[in-house]
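[retry 2/3] DUF805 domain-containing protein: previous attempt timed out, resubmitting with same input.
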Amino acid sequence: MTFGQSIGTCFSKYFTFSGRASRPEYWYFFLFMVLGNVVATLLDAALFDSVTTTVETSDTGASASIENTGPISALFSLALFLPHLAVAFRRMHDTGRSGLFALFPILLMIGAGLILVFGIGIASSFAAGGSLDLLFTRATLLLLIPTLAVLIVSPLLVLWWLTRPSQPGTNQYGPNPYEVQK
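[retry 2/3] DUF805 domain-containing protein: success.
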């Protein structure tokens, strides 16, 4: 599959989360997303950057800040969110895994946030420095530290799964994309 075919396939399967996607299909589309974001960011910088200069009367002199309010990069990323998620699901299917594994790091981030918010929230509802306050704070940390460790490793695991070769033959998600010729 070529670069152009990959982009065309991913856009034609915009909402298709079933089936399988070959490695070139996923990685060429990923390359398209990276290159597109670079171009969109450059366009945002060229069209929407504003420089603000502040002159101070003290010895520090002047300071300048650049503010980018450009929407091009954000709109580009938003437009490609669903097709990227769909091709990631199909790529996971190609390796014999559920597509939900592509969401593994995001689910862990949500879980870590919930542990932190509810654990600290419960601890703060007790008297400061009391035994229940310490118990819930320590329990929160006891749950949060391994969750953060897994959170650091999980994107690497998902990346490794996305680079795995196709499962030979037909699996529960459909035929091997290398064996199907259109």
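[retry 2/3] DUF805 domain-containing protein: The chain has a mean pLDDT of 83.
[retry 2/3] clearing retry counter.
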